[in-house]
Amino acid sequence: VRVVESGGGLVPPGGSLRLACQASNFTTFAFGLYGMNWFRQVPGKEREWVARITGIGAKTTYADSVKDRFTISRDNAMKRLYLQMNFLTPEDTAVYYCKTDSFDHPWGPGTQVTVSS
Q1: By the 8 A CB rule, do 50 and 38 touch?
Q2: Cβ contacts of residue 78 below 8 Å, gap of 6+?
Q3: How many whole angstroms separate alpha carbon 117 and alpha carbon 108?
Q4: By the 8 A CB rule, do 82 and 74 touch?
Q5: What is the pLDDT, as a whole number, of residue 114?
Q6: In the sheet where 9-11 sits, what is the strand order?
Q7: What is the distance between the alpha carbons of residues 82 and 97, in angstroms, rounded to a whole number?
Q8: Residues in the chain with pLDDT < 50?
Q9: Number of H helices, E strands in the chain
Q10: Angle at the Cα of 109 (from 104 to 113), degrees rounded to 5?
Q11: pLDDT tens digit string along 17-45?
Q12: How far apart (Å, rounded) are the C-alpha atoms in residues 71 and 17?
């Protein structure tokens, strides 16, 4: 199993970004069995959970810090996970990672999001 994040970049405060996570070495059936998560990490700080979506996408949950600004979604046929981020603030600056619910599955390399004017 492998996941690779993309879509990060530099954006001004108040802007938007859409992150994507491509899973590989998964069948589409297997991908749909796992809940998927987004995490983020700032250098020197612990990795922070951001959002989760169930295997079939029926339920989503968010950290309070991103609720009503971020939207997690998934396309099981394409084995992709997304994070739509709106109304970004400098506090959202971090490396963002996607992760399955399984402790056995590895982390991806992450994608850098920088919110700055």
Answers
A1: yes
A2: none
A3: 28
A4: yes
A5: 98
A6: 9-11, 111-115, 94-100, 36-41, 48-53, 60-62
A7: 11
A8: none
A9: 1, 10
A10: 125
A11: 999 999 999 888 899 999 999 999 999 99
A12: 11
